[in-house]
Amino acid sequence: MGILIIVAVAAVIASQVMTTTAPITGMDGRRLPGSITSVEKVELNGTEQWIMIRGNDVSNPVLLNLGMGGPGGGGFFNATEFRPLEEHFTVVSWDEPGTGKSYGAVPFNELNRERYVADAVALTNLLRERFGQQKIFVYGVSWSSILGIWLARENPELYHAFVSSGQMVNTTENDRMGYELALRHLDEQGDTRRAEELRRNGPPPYHGNNVVSPYVAFLDVLNEIMGTPRFSLIVPVIPFFVPEYGYVDKINHTRGLIETFNVVYPQLEGLNFKEQAQELQVPVYFFVGRQDVNAMASLVEEYFNSLTAPGKKLIWLEGGHGLGSAENQNVFIDEMITQVRPLSRR
Q1: What is this structure's pTM?
Q2: Going by DSSP bridges, is the β-strand pair 90-95/62-65 parallel, antiparallel, or unpaired?
Q3: Which of 175, 171, 163 is nearest to 287 (CA)?
Q4: 3-state DSSP: the chain helix, strand, coil percent, rounded to 5?
Q5: How far apart are CA 23 and CA 21, in angstroms?
Q6: What count of other Cβ atoms lies within 10 Å of the Cβ of residue 260?
Q7: Omega prior to 71 cis, within 30 of 0
Q8: 239-251: string of b/e by CB count within 10 Å (b at 16+)?
Q9: If 0-12 CB within 10 Å is exposed, 13-18 middle and 19+ buried, where does residue 27 land?
């Protein structure tokens, strides 16, 4: 038994120490000259955080992926969505503080808007210096689309453009609309048990030590409406599809998503970009699912129509939250290559 324990501990340690990301290879199967593939620990404002860098050519413009959502989702999981772009961008995916490989980077009670913006700006400047570029591109989805708007609003000189999918606009209005839609759906389906649970929870916003549970209760229903798996089913499974995670990272990803959400999401209660970010000084590209009822498509369209920016484009996708299907992925990739990347030459 003692030997088995030693072997198990050694396997866990090895999985953490030896994490890497697959090389980019040419037709001959060898590493492509000039390419970069790395998983790195970087110092951001006195803390150690983790990034993944992948690209065919380090002279390409840099695209910073802020992460998959949450708050607390991190960028290592959705990094696979950018694989087709690695020929055209140097893609940097960030595990933000509080999740995945950066789980313990910052005490949870210090996670707030100022912290996220400061760390994202520090990472941006690190990448600008490392790759010799005056500006970079930045992408966010769902929660990280909020961070992206903050960055574009407060530091426009650092970015060629801001790109998002599942754009959040007004969290409180968005969540109340989602709650009411979920409740109507359950009533129509005759699902009295879950409908009563939602009624007991009451409408959002929620407060207290465990806001995850009441939010997930209606978000699970919204996912069903959009034809996607429930959050309560996919969240524990997500990190096991990230090859760059060791065993501890996989556990910390789920822990971090829950703990970070509990701390950070209530801080977004007053968010309303129609009032707080009416004008941005960078081009903006919103990819919006027509059936998105997580980040309500109607609110994104209203915000887009009222937004002033040096360039803006709303690209409609079929389906729900995020990029989703292969067809939507193709639309995203084509737009990024043909419309977004050329902005780096201005």
Answers
A1: 0.94
A2: parallel
A3: 163
A4: 50, 15, 35
A5: 6
A6: 25
A7: yes
A8: beebebbbbebbe
A9: exposed
Q: How far apart are the first and last CA of the chain?
A: 64
- Contact status, residue 250 vs residue 240, Cβ threshold 8 Å: yes
CB 144 within 8 A of CB 167: no
Q: Where are the beta strands (DSSP E) in the chain?
A: 36-44, 47-55, 62-65, 90-95, 136-141, 159-165, 284-289, 312-317
In terms of DSSP bridges, do strands 36-44 and 90-95 run parallel, antiparallel, or are they unpaired?
A: unpaired
Q: What is the pLDDT of residues 227-262, one digit of tens each?
A: 988 877 777 788 888 899 999 999 999 999 999 999
Query: What's the confidence (pLDDT) of residue 17?
Result: 52
Quick one: which of 103, 88, 134, 87 has its CA closest to 41?
Answer: 103
Q: Which residues are CB-contacts of 162 (< 8 A; sequence separation ≥ 6)? A: 137, 138, 139, 140, 148, 149, 151, 152, 280, 282, 283, 284, 285
Other Cβ atoms closer than 10 A to 32: 18
Q: What token pair was written down for 181?
A: 């839609």
Average pLDDT over residues 84-97: 97
Residues 334-339 have a mean pLDDT of: 98
Does pLDDT of 14 surpass 50? no
**If pLDDT is split at 50, 70 and 90, which confidence band does 29 have?**
confident
Single-letter code of the amino acid located at 343: L
Counting other chains too, the contacts that 189-198 makes at CB distance below 8 Å and 24 or more residues apart are 194/221
